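Sequence in, structure out.
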Amino acid sequence: MEAIHVKAVPADELIERLAEYLRENVKEVSMPEWALFVKTGPHRQRPPDRLDWWYIRAASILRKLYVKGPMGVSRLRKVYGGRKKYPMRRAHKVKAGGAIIRRILQQLEAAGLVAKTNKGRWLTPKGVSLLDRISFEIATGRKR
């Protein structure tokens, strides 16, 4: 089995497949009951439309940790933030909400996919092998 890097496959397809895997196989990652009613940040006007957005965000965080290295909640808030429009002044960039990102990271730590270091959260060898396996399946056109 030749190693396929996560950057070699389309990000949207990898995130969809990884979210499906997390939803079906990892019992530690679960959407809290309040997640259906909460916005993802102050730059949003409404909650997400998709009902499985929690798993998609968890998969996206896993991919970010694989590609960008150790990251903390603050850097991830900056990544998932966006443009907030104001009625009478210019729009500004704001950070996303931290509670969602923090809870997802805690769930991924409980699942053994992420570990905490003094530089931020980092993928464990189990998490790296999971992302490598799914990216290999996407690159070769297989479905598990």
